[in-house]
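We modelled the chain as a single entity of 231 amino acids. Its sequence is:
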Amino acid sequence: MSPTEKALRIQTLKLRQTFALPWFSLMIAILMVAAIFGVAHQVPYDKRVTGALTAFYLSGIGMQPWLINQVFPFAMALSVTRGAFIRATAAIIFVEAVVAGAGLTVLSRLETATHGWFVHTRLLNLPHVHQDNVFSQFLVYGVPMAVLSTTMACVAAVFRAFGQIGLWVFAVATAVLAALTIIVLTLTHAGGSVVHFFGSQPMLADFALYPLALVALFGTGWVLLMKRARV
């Protein structure tokens, strides 16, 4: 067994408590929304659009912090190298994104085929994320999962490398950067142009292509931080 395979095996010990949680949450959301609209007959069909899809993504927020802050020291104690752990985590993030893209695409098509889970509701096949092309739909669903995972992995690595103070500094720096960006856009009257630019782009670009820059940014930061993370 290679070091990377060993790291993968350690990280996938608790599949039901980690990787399966988003899918459990999505199934619960589908059942709850279908039950609600099954009895709420007074709600017009064109108003039966929900944000229950967010339950899928939000349920995966805690996985990377758990892997890095709980599993990483355990893996190091079992003689797993940092490089092997990084490669294994990167593979997991990639597989997560692929499975999310493929699974949600299939479910969105099933939602259409069943006329909104038999109650004419839209949970997955939302107007602003719908793509006619299957591969484009796969990217629109899958890339946000990669963004979420790499972002949370980077945040967890900040804590692992610099502790609570480092995490606080990171949060403050992010808030200051966001505030400065808003100030600059306001003073230069460029905010409307930025909003118009992204609003005029196809959903494939906004949800899949541009977010890849965030995957590269936070992924690079995560790798660099993990090389100096405390065990």
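As a brief sanity check on the tokenised model: Residues 3-226 form one domain. The chain has ten helices and no strands.
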